[in-house]
Amino acid sequence: MDTAEFKKRGREMVDYIAEYAETLSQRRVTPNIEPGYLRHLLPYNAPHKGEEWEDIMKDVERFIMPGVTHWQHPRFHAYFPAGNSYPSILADMLSDAIGCVGFSWAASPACTELEIIMLDWLGKMIGLPHDFLCLSDHGAGGGVIQGSASECVLVSLLAARHATIRALKQQHPFVEEGVLLSKLMAYCSKEAHSSMEKAAMIGFVKLRILETDDRFQLRGTTLAKAMEEDRAMGLIPFFVMATLGTTSCCSFDPLYEIGPVCQKDGIWLHVDAAYAGSAFICPEFQYLMRGIEYASSFNMNPNKWMLLNFDCSTMWVKDRFKLTQALVVDPLYLQHSFSDKAIDYRHWGIPLSRRFRSLKLWFVIRKYGVEGLQKYIRDHVRLAKKFESLVRKDERFEVVNNVHLGLVCFRLKGSNNLNQKLLSSINASGKLHMVPSSLNDRYVIRFCVCAQQAIDDDISHAWEVITQFTSDLYEIMKMDNKEKNKDEQGVDNKENTDESVDEVFMLDHKKRQSLRYKRSFFVRMVSDPKLYNPKIVRSQSSTGSRRHTSDPVDDTGVVTPV
To answer: In whole angstroms, what is the distance from residue 56 CA to residue 422 CA?
Structure first.
């Protein structure tokens, strides 16, 4: 490494990052480009000779930034937060500079041991039972950093599958494993993350997706009934995934109901708290995880709501030996003389190679402290409650979910098409970025408090944008109705008035002279055409698309791997 050059360019990069953060609000939150924009800007072949660093950085601003969706933008309210803070960024820089590959204790002892300690720290912070901690008196549990919540779900399912097949082989030693595998049944609610469906596909097990109640929760009675039905058909329930803080509406499955159902027959219960898990740092939110003592495994994403940059998904198990037994592959070249005394995280997940991700946890927790992280969480919840109160004060809207944390699901009182048009127009303007979800076949708009430095003015601004676009949409609908009535010589034709706006519209109040002119200026392109343009969505659905767990299933509710 040329250390002099590195120092110079490192300072320049830090300055660029700092300026980007300081001026982020001046950028458009979503890019105004179309798919394939970049391939027309970059050369067809890689450069044969190295280029000047200054030219590379110029091209970052010229070519890359125009295509970036700015997840740290104060107007970004889509999905869930993407963690970000300077201690986390600097920790990643240090990790990259050290460059170790910590697949085993011997490969880099500090990498392994810091991860063990940080997972115990965090487990205590969120109130996990001591059974999940590695350095507790019980000693059988432990935590690990995975790349994503999807990995956490998958390895939990694989561990449960291995333990179940092993037990069944003892009972039925002459039955082929493939036959036993074909009988295994996993369960989740229709609000569970789609990673559960993917895990079932990879694990070659059946998955039954269950209905929720009016608060979008999976009830224990629903689960027990489904298991009873499946046993009567010769199937073997072995794995349940409950969710604390669903993606669609941040609902919470009652673990205190689901847990006893699983415990009764020794069924593995995995709890996915990818978003909401960070909130449990605050004692006042820990009631939402009541019944966690029944879980076999638990995961959360500090890289969502704990100021850590992606990737950092944390996972705990009560019995780490059940996890490692399912994943151990131990060639001679990876063995070392301390294998019997130390944890080797290569046995805890899918990849062999592992980065020094625990540095991020260590830096962030030490810099902000538990108190600082609690303040950050509580402030986001307060801002979400403020947005909820604004929605409830406007009679045109309704709040659809129980606002426990930082997510508010709302909609106009009207058809799905009306709400789709509203969200499409807002996203097309680049003034805000939100995404939809479907709750009991109703199209709703998700508003999540995401920015690290979010303030009250950001919430007020977002609501002003939403209400102004709503008023303009209604005005355009009235204009259309008047013209229709005029054309039909006074015949009353008020049915499906919201269907009259045929295209996504963009309203810019500084540049447009009147609603009539705005009505004539429609744009098809929005920030994500596949997601927001109603005509594209309808076209894709008619040609077939991959089903999500919230979509309808067949009459039996069973999804079988293809």
So the answer is: 39
